[in-house]
Amino acid sequence: MKKLTYLFISLQAFDAFLTLWATNHGFQEINPVMASIADTWWIVAVKLVPAIIATWFLGRLASRYPIVRRVTVGGLGAACIFLAVVLVSNIWEII
To answer: What is the rounded (10 degree) CA torsion for 54, 2, 43, 80?
Structure first.
């Protein structure tokens, strides 16, 4: 589970920095919720802090309850796949 946690946080960080870079180079953020902070360093905090807190909390629960571990591993795996597809799509748009 630790590898998935690190992968998820890394993908969130990459997404935040890619968004920051892209919006500062003329691209637009299409998510209206994130558009107002997409070209500032707040995007990094808004993406990373919740990811770190959520994975820490889920890790604590997963260490106590086996069913939570199974669900967490599945959910984090799915989230990592989804985020990786979004990142590839975003990079494809930039190129």
So the answer is: -100
Domains identified in the chain, total number: 1
Give pLDDT tens digits for 17-51: 999 999 999 999 999 999 999 999 999 999 999 99
In this structure, what token pair is assigned to residue 21?
């870079």
Identify the domain containing residue 72 by its residue range.
2-94
Helix, strand, coil abundance in the chain, percent, nearest 5: 80, 0, 20
* DSSP 8-state code for residue 41: T
Q: Tell me how far the alpha carbon of residue 52 is from its chain's centroid.
A: 10
